[in-house]
Hints:
It holds the Pfam family Dioxygenase_C. This protein is an alpha/beta fold. It has one domain (10-19, 33-279): Sandwich (Protocatechuate 3,4-Dioxygenase, subunit A), CATH 2.60.130.10. The chain contains 6 helices and 14 strands. The protein has helices at residues 10-22, 33-54, 58-73, 77-84, 86-93, 204-212, and strands spanning 115-116, 119-121, 132-140, 151-156, 176-180, 186-192, 197-198, 217-218, 221-227, 234-240, 259-260, 263-265, 268-272, 275-276. The strands form 3 sheets. Strands 1-5-4-9-10-11 form a 6-stranded mixed sheet, with no helix packed on it. The longest helix is centred in the first third of the chain and has 22 residues, at 33-54. The structure holds 3,4-dihydroxybenzoic acid and fe (iii) ion. Fe (iii) ion is lined by residues 106, 108, 197, 221, 223.
Amino acid sequence: MTVTEDKATAAGSGRNATASFARKQRTTEPADHARVSAIATDALAALHEVIRRHQVTYTEYDALKAWLIDVGETGEWPLFLDVFIEHVVEEVANADRQGAVGTIEGPYYIPDAPEFPSEATVPMRGDEKGTPLLFQGTVTDLDGAPIENALVELWHADDAGFYSQFAPGIPEWNLRAQIRTGTDGRYTFHTIQPAPYQIPTDGACGRLIAAAGWHPWRPAHLHLKVSAAGKAPITTQLYFAGGEYVEDDVAQAVKPELILHPTATASGNEVTYAFPLDPA
Length: 280
Ligand code: DHB
Ligand code: FE
């Protein structure tokens, strides 16, 4: 008898994303009451204005309550926030950068992935599906001088759009790795090209997307964090020119500077990308 693998579900990836967020280091600073009041007052006023503009009914208000409760109960808050809100937080946070362009982190980052020297074959299954991708480049300062010992963290979905540690049946560190650049600032990853990612359609976020008639897709992407001593760390994603949903990302996280143009080689695709880091 074969053992049937659990299917990926919204509740499953939601639960895992919520548990992962709970492990993240967060501020323990006391609240700045004036700032909390200013932001909360304006956020509520924005909602009040929407209710008046659209003449929201009690039926709709109750549907909203039920939906919000459901998002929480299924652990989908990280998914919802990172798809629909994070891109503006990132825009504000990185507005003053001169160098490498950032975008959203999303809910599926895990720190402390397996570490390699400057060239790594990313951990993957023996029969990992997907076009092989040679992804390489340099980490530099804003003047283009190479940075040695920069940390380049890479994580991405597999050829079916699933992330290890969030969807069932995938080895723990599959398609997750971090490498240190050498004296020339270079990094080289051997991996596979991910597939587009679909927001789970069977949960509360999926129900909102379906009810609104939107589509639930993000374009295929590589996630990266790049950091080095004395530099401002960057969190970003890279996309593939001409790929599905690049022009129409449900999370609105694509920027022109983040689109890769890989070339085909005998053994797959190859692309080079540079990360000039701003000073800290
Ligand atoms: C979500 C998933 C992603 O892979 C990503 O990059 C951003 C957001 C999400 O499901 O919320
Ligand atoms: Fe992602």
